[in-house]
Amino acid sequence: MMRRAALSLLVILIVGYAPTIEAVPSRQTLVLAAAPGLDIPRLQPDEIRSLFMGAPVVKQGVRLRPLLNESDPLLREVFLQKVMFVSWKHYQRRLVEEAFRQGWPLPETVSNPHRLVRALALEPGAITYMWQDVAQQSNVEVVQTLWSGPVD
Questions:
Q1: Is there a contact between 120 and 108 (Cβ–Cβ < 8 Å)?
Q2: Which residues on adjacent β-strands are paired with residue 130?
Q3: Average pLDDT for the chain
Q4: What percentage of the chain reaches a pLDDT higher than 70?
Q5: For residue range 56-78, what is the model confidence (pLDDT) as tens digits?
Q6: Pick from 17, 51, 70: which is nearest to 146 by CA?
Q7: Hey, CA dihedral for 144, 149, 150, 152, is it positive or negative?
Q8: Terminal CA-to-CA distance of the chain, rounded, Å?
Q9: Hey, which bits of the chain come out as E strands?
Q10: Rounded CA gap, 119 and 111, in Å?
Q11: Burial, 132: exposed, middle or buried (Cβ in 10 Å; 0-12, 13-18, 19+)?
Q12: Any idea what DSSP says for residue 12?
């Protein structure tokens, strides 16, 4: 019995003092995506922020239509923090304020990834944000990289 207690104590001490293994956060790349063939040049950061606030943005004669990708909460959070520089609550408030003040339409929200890809293909000028690996698996064109880094 004494031997078992000593062995248990030894195991606890070894495990307790063993170097901890930190979880390595996964690395993701956030991209701006559109239907194949939508030939638009790279957008400037202020154009992207204006576009997703509902402001009209025209590139090469095409009026861009933002689609808010709600298929992944982490994706939304990264987009708002790293691209728009606002929280979800602040973004919603500013979006509604600008819509009323400027008369801009609210961007369409899409929560189903298959519907999002279909909307990109069917709606002229539709553009959204998504993870790069999702864009590569879907039939969409990556317009540009918005952000890349670790996510936890």
A1: no
A2: 31
A3: 88
A4: 84
A5: 999 999 999 999 999 999 999 99
A6: 51
A7: negative
A8: 44
A9: 26-34, 58-59, 62-63, 65-69, 108-110, 126-131, 141-151
A10: 11
A11: middle
A12: H
Hey, which residues does 147 pair with through a beta bridge? Answer: 30
Residue 7 has pLDDT above 90, yes or no: no
* Bridge partners, 28 (sequence order): 149
Distance of alpha carbon 83 from the chain centroid: 9
Distance CA 84, CA 51 (A): 10
Q: Name the one residue in this structure whose structure tokens are 């519907």.
A: 115
pTM for the whole thing? Answer: 0.82
Q: Reply yes or no on whether the pLDDT at 24 is more than 80.
A: no
Give Cβ neighbours of residue 48 (< 8 Å, ≥ 6 apart). 32, 83, 146
Residue of 43, 50, 52 lying closest to 128 (CA atoms): 52
Contact 83, 49 (CB under 8 A): yes
CA 124 from centroid of its chain's CA atoms: 21
Spatial contact of 139 and 146, defined as CB atoms under 8 Å apart: no
- Residue 40's nearest CA partner among 145, 142, 131, 119 is 142
